[in-house]
Amino acid sequence: MKNQFRQALLVLLIFVIIAAVHLFINTQNIGLKYKATDLKIKLGALRSQRQMLGAQVAGKETPALIEKYAVEKLGMATPADVKYILP
Fold first, then answer.
1. What is the pLDDT of residues 47-86, one digit of tens each?
2. What is the CA radius of gyration of the chain?
């Protein structure tokens, strides 16, 4: 009788341990899914921001703005007469 009780108790203990491990793994899995979803949202926002900043940089790299900056801020001037030697 004691032997059957011990076996039943051992089976119950193993079942409880397996259930606890399963619950822990499942909880971790759900948490990771939430984090993955959050990171996907942040990635989308960062891609949009990168695209917007790229457009801003492209707008500031026009030849006219570069020339204006060179003349006003750096004191440069366009050469008056440029001669080329053709072969």
1. 999 999 999 988 888 888 888 889 999 999 888 888 888 8
2. 35
**C-beta pairs of 53-62 under 8 Å, 24+ apart in sequence:** none
pLDDT digits (tens, 9 = 90+) for 5-35: 899 999 999 999 999 999 999 999 999 999 9
Distances (CA, A) of 50 to 39, 43, 44, 46, 65: 16, 10, 10, 6, 22
Q: Where are the alpha helices (DSSP H) in 1-87?
A: 2-60, 63-72
13: how many CB neighbours lie within 10 A of its CB?
10
